[in-house]
Amino acid sequence: MAGLKLFPIAGMNNVSADDALQRGGDSPKLFVRDALNVDISDTGRIALRKGAVQVSASNFKNIWQSPLHKDVFATLDHDVVLVNPRDWSHRILGENIVGQYASYKVVNNLVYICTDIDLFVFDGVALTALNVPLPYFSKEPILGDGGQLPHGNYVIAMSLLKNGRESGLSESRLIKIDNDLTQTNPDFAINSLKKIQINILELKLLNIDAVRVYITYTNGSVLRHYDDFNINGLGSNIDILSVDKLGFEAQFENYSPMPIGKFFDFWNGRLLTADKNIIYFSEPLAYHLNDEKYGFVMLPQRITFLMPVDGGIWVGQVDHVVFLSGGQPDEMTFIRKTAHAPVPSSAMLVDSETVGSDISQGGAKSALWLAENGYVIGTSTGQIIELHAGTLKGITSKSGRSVRLGRRIITALG
At residue 188, does pLDDT exceed 50? Predict the structure, then answer.
């Protein structure tokens, strides 16, 4: 009986029939049904996979290293911490700001962090909240004497300022100053001039720097900047005395704080978050704001991964993957690209060194994820390459995390 030549091993194959696992010819190779706790080299040799060693007694989760600064971030209990990988000591950056998950992204030398509680930004020194709370009128504005506002209609609104960022506008209020025709005083034109008082007592309890007030001209329709009021030392009311020196137009009407999401990334000048079946887009250069009317895309199924590339966004669904293309959220279209279910959270970006110049199409980064039929590459132009089609099947898991070690991609399933 002729012996079976074991090497070189070409990898796993649980699709083909038994007699198709061994290939002859000028380049003989052998596929195996399963390979447990071993690594198969490029030349087809087998090596026992190295075991794991506990490096810290602390229960770090959501570990991530900044590709720019090489700082290591993690979560510990409900805190976000900065970890020293030499001795695995840590420094708390923010307390009680995470429940279960946290995601990270470097944008313009800053680290943005999305947890299941809020969005944060780390500048290398301190961790601060990214979002600015939305203001509201706790009491209806009232009219008072002693101002310079003539009779007519006025619309007012507020925003809040924190760390140089402006919130979206509050709901507006229409204020009517009636012409007092019953006034018998010959100086009624002066005596009927009013001021508008806004109660901001509850706003002083928020973590903000200032309140910004907008108002229209008399009987106007465009909200314009009236003034900024530093919260320190401010009383319980803000008075609008006149509209003689109004400034720029309000720009953040119908904007709300950027929503959080299980998936978090950056694309085309915007932060992205995804929750359930909705992708939210921040405003360009105003990452703390989301356009309530147009700043989202709704998909038919629950999102299982989110991976932007140059030409669009790869989005995992429960039983397939779609590619979103278009430059703006309200212009995006999606095309179903594969019918194979991806492993949730298994996607990562890979460069041309890993996948080769032919696949990367000029050096652009590609998306890679693990599906039920093996690894799949999504190019920057929306093309699909199923690397293990015809050799692997039946891969399922509730979640996965992919990392690159050298030119090898490893996905841990859980």
Answer: no
- Of the candidates 225, 239, 245, the residue with the CA atom closest to the CA atom of residue 144: 239
357 vs 143, higher pLDDT: 143
Q: What percent of the chain has pLDDT over 90?
A: 77
Which DSSP helix (H) or strand (E) runs through 191? helix 188-191
Q: Name residues whose C-beta falls within 8 Å of residue 167's C-beta, 6 or more positions apart in sequence.
A: 132, 133, 134, 135, 159, 160, 161, 252, 255, 257, 288, 289
Q: pTM to 2 decimals?
A: 0.90
What strands lie across the sheet with 127-129, from one edge to the other? 102-107, 110-115, 119-122, 127-129
Instruction: Give the number of domains in the chain.
Output: 4
Assess if residue 2 is contained within a domain: no
Residues forming a β-bridge with 275: 278
| Same-domain check for residues 316 and 350 | yes
Pick from 293, 311, 313: which is nearest to 303 by CA? 313
Alpha helix (H) residue ranges in 251-362:
352-355, 357-360
Q: Which domain holds residue 213?
A: 142-240
pLDDT exceeds cutoff 90 at 274: yes
